[in-house]
Design brief:
Layout lengths: L7 H7 L1 H14 L6 H14 L3 E5 L2 H11 L7 E4 L6 H8 L3 E4 L13 H4 L4 E4 L11 H11 L4 E3 L7 E2 L2 E2 L6 E5 L13 E5 L2 H10 L21 H12 L1 H19 L12 E2 L5 E4 L3 H10 L29 H7 L2 E4 L7 H16 L1
Parallel strand pairs: 2-3, 2-4, 5-8
Antiparallel strand pairs: 1-9, 6-7, 6-10, 8-9, 11-12
Helix pairs in contact: 2-9, 3-9, 4-5, 4-8, 10-13
Length: 365
């Protein structure tokens, strides 16, 4: 028995007719840019997240850049975020000329609010918590700090559609939020795609223009903008997947609960607090002898990943920021121990049991 980390062929097999129907409808009409499914998807996405507006864009990285551009962040400014994320969280800051400032994380791998206030300076123009692994960062605490200092919050919710904490859904707490719909996400396109959410009417108007060259209409351009539009084909494919998302999340949560029940005495599993709803974009355990365990599982046909083995502050690209090993001790300790197990919605109970049995066997040796 094999246990793949993802299973795109199975997803297509189960949704073949709906996917091809959606694709064919767009091809027959030919409205590839800003077509009718884009507006329909944006409306349903906003409703799902409990916000007023959703703006489809080309990818998750663009969504971060557009949000920061919308509030005028640029050279000389600082944006506070975390280092144990995908590179886009920090690269988007650097690409607009600002400086990423990293704070350490808590045991849950998300931004530690207790360390946030001391990282603020007069140059801080935005706080960007990352909702890592499908688990929302501690937004009630983060939003309270941001409000005291009058600093906007941009949620990097790329991995966390449907997650919540303290009654606040990912994407609904900050001034605006960024989502990725990359193929590996719980809500996945068949290529790159992204969404911005906001409750601010002015931001909604500005972001819609920013994604489309700064155009007021076909003939008038108010400011220099970007070409970052969600393709109609992707929106058409995403619509039925969005409607099925609660079921997808439920299946992933079931798999995660099976892991926790069977492995919590062997490895460190995520602990879901009473006020949290975790959607398990990835299921990350923290364990000793991580690399040996990963190799052992692969020998048994079980594919795992590490998200992420080198934190951003220790990447070559970030060398000019001046961070060194030891600056973020919790992040750095976790990077040696984290391992992502398969948790996708197409796993069978037998496959989950094989993962569990193999891990227990490894730690008996």
């Amino acid at each position: 028995m094999k246990v793949p980390y993802v299973n795109f062929p199975q997803q297509f097999k189960e949704a073949r007719e709906q996917t091809l129907t959606a694709f064919t409808a767009v091809m027959e009409r030919g409205d590839f840019i800003q077509g009718r499914e884009v507006a329909e998807f944006e409306g349903e996405f906003a409703k799902f997240c409990g916000v007023k507006h959703a703006i489809g864009v080309a990818n998750g990285t663009d969504s971060l850049i557009l949000c920061m551009r919308a509030v005028g962040i640029g050279p000389g400014d600082e944006v506070i975020t975390t280092s144990n994320s995908w590179i886009s969280s920090a690269s988007s800051i650097a690409l607009i000329g600002a400086r990423p400032v990293f704070v350490d994380v808590s045991a849950d791998q998300n931004m530690n609010p207790a360390l946030l206030e001391r990282a603020l300076t007069k140059k801080t123009k935005c706080i960007m918590p990352v909702h890592l692994t499908g688990r929302a960062a501690r937004m009630p605490e983060i939003l309270a700090i941001a409000a005291r200092h009058h600093i906007p919050v941009l949620e990097d919710a790329a991995q966390a559609i449907g997650a919540s904490v303290g009654g606040i859904k990912a994407g609904a707490g900050g001034l605006f939020s960024s989502f990725s719909l990359h193929p590996l996400k719980n809500l996945n396109a068949t290529g790159d795609a992204g969404v911005i959410t906001t409750n601010d009417d002015e931001m909604n108007t500005k972001l819609r223009m920013l994604r489309n060259h700064g155009m007021r209409n076909r003939d008038e351009i108010d400011f220099w903008g970007y070409n970052s539009r969600l393709d109609t084909v992707q929106a058409a494919i995403l619509l039925p997947r969005l409607r099925q998302l609660p079921e997808i999340i439920s299946k992933r949560r079931t798999n995660a609960k099976r892991y926790v029940a069977a492995l919590a005495d062997i490895v460190e599993c995520p602990v879901e607090r009473d006020d949290e709803f975790h959607t398990y974009h990835v299921f990350v355990v923290q364990c000793d002898r991580r690399d040996e365990l990963q190799a052992f599982l692969l020998q048994r046909g079980i594919e795992t990943k590490i998200h992420y083995p080198i934190p951003i502050h220790l990447q070559k690209a970030a060398s000019g920021l001046g961070y060194r090993l030891g600056d973020l001790p919790v992040t750095e300790r976790q990077m040696k121990r984290i391992l992502s197990l398969p948790v996708h919605q197409f796993l069978s109970a037998q496959q989950v049991d094989l993962v569990v049995d193999s891990i227990r066997e490894f730690y008996k040796t």
